[in-house]
Amino acid sequence: MDYVTARETAEQWNVTERQIYNYCNDGKIDGAVKRGSVWLIPINAHKPLDARYKKDDIEVTNNVKCGDCLQLIDEIPNETLDLIVTSPPYWAKRIYNGSGELGSEATPELYVSTLVSYFDKFKSKLKKDGNLFVNIGDTFFGSGAGAWSKYLDDDGNITEYQKERKEKYFTTKPLQPKIQQNGKLYQNKQLLLIPARFAIAMQENGWILRDDIIWHKPNRIPASVTDRFNNTYEHVYHFVKSKSYFFDLNAVKVLGANGKMKNPGDVWSINTQPLDGNHTASFPEKLIEQIVMAASPKNGVVYDPFMGTGTTWVVCEKLKRNFIGHEINNEFVQYAYSRFINTIRK
Predict the structure, then answer these.
(1) Residues of the domain holding 190
(2) What DSSP line would sit under 96-125, residue for residue?
(3) What is the pLDDT of residues 66-96, one digit of tens each?
(4) Which residues pair with 205 in a beta bridge?
């Protein structure tokens, strides 16, 4: 990694050198290193956001960090969060950070138990009347999900960009670990029902499941299968800690055929939202808007432990919620930062 001095960074960001040292001492510049009494700054580092600012007379706080959410969660006081909303890495679908990451477990059962342990650790940080929404996808046993043998763009042409991106995030070999078939759960073409197994495991650990929302994707690209129907939806589970919790149904009611406002129901038809860059699994802003409006108060605190490219952060900015985000992939954090800045400027 290439570095520049604090003075050079100060000139680039139009702040004082002292402010750069304060940023470094507070741990606000990812990748900054100290050599003796001198701080060195990564050449591609971004200026930290001011933690607080006014938006329409509401003071908004943003706290975004690059790192492992299992470690960073300890920095959040208990019963701070009004809402946790996230989409964790799915099992054996993509490579984000290398071996040992969430989603690379040896079996789907181990993945489910590992994922549940994450939310058990987050639980004490959620207010008693808080909400948890988790978007999670499924897969088939023996699936070649993640394997690519061609590098084609939308016009069918081979491009170096497609080749590099797909080899980095999907690899040219199937991502599923080699598991011996047993004629039961482990047999080729078996839908693993990972979302359902996760929901049941969460219930067994004391979470109350309130909704199983079906996110229908009208613009889903059809798969080239001939012996089953195309999958066009994912699950979004709504959990709570107690039977009494915050929920503002009026904020998300829709106009009914009779001209009266009604409950939108638990099947949401929302197109996927493509983004520029390398993140290939970003959920759409409209999906998160529904959740944030219904499940958190204005000026409440929303947390996304698997922030990705910052969709939840952008939505919270628009809806005047405070946001805490953690993401282990620095490339995604940098993208999210730029995306957020562009949102503020609009």
Answers:
(1) 49-141+176-345
(2) SS-TTSTT--SSHHHHHHHHHHHHHHHGGG
(3) 889 999 999 999 999 999 999 999 988 776 6
(4) none
